[in-house]
């Protein structure tokens, strides 16, 4: 029987530590999804036990484009340690690009870090797919920290757009999506990028930037889209409610 108003029902939930603000638009989606999924699972008035450290993204973006990754790593480690001191049971980095320093963050804290690429790859493999397209920031599409994990740990074949398409995808993320702008012309441009990946053999496409889900919908692609924001947030709920 559900408890009456005023009664308290103890439910075992781990505390999710969210490193957000990169950008806050996608972090708001994380917060919404984790709370909706906990309510769906537990019912009633339940919501997620979570903490969020939210960056000023202008500071992070400046470090990214200046190539000052060591300074960005120090900030990420500081954020994770703040969450650890605050009582988080595990850490979620609410962005794909900043998983560039996921290993360093994990080594600096005593909590598990739930890597965004792992639940995404697991869903793709469970669907019987192996060759995937990857959309994201230029850092995610061009550097090996993300693609390499998908290939080496999960056995996927990863296709990225050509130079011109990578430039378009990156520009839309930073000039529009992280600023809350959703442009129909950009949706059409992304449709073209996706179509060209499919022509090259992509069986699915990973939306490997947490803002892309604000722009691209399933109907914009002839193959399945794997939204890392939703997948990562849902995996965080699974871990929070698990007995592991």
UniProtKB/TrEMBL annotation:
The protein, known as: Aspartate racemase
UniProt keyword annotation of Secreted present: no
Pfam families in the record: Asp_Glu_race (PF01177)
Species name: Azospirillum lipoferum (strain 4B)
UniProt keyword terms in alphabetical order: Isomerase, Plasmid
GO MF annotations, alphabetized: amino-acid racemase activity
InterPro entries the UniProt entry points to: Asp/Glu/hydantoin_racemase, Asp/Glu_race, Asp_race
Keyword RNA-binding belongs to the record: no
Source species, domain of life: Bacteria
Stated family: Belongs to the aspartate/glutamate racemases family.
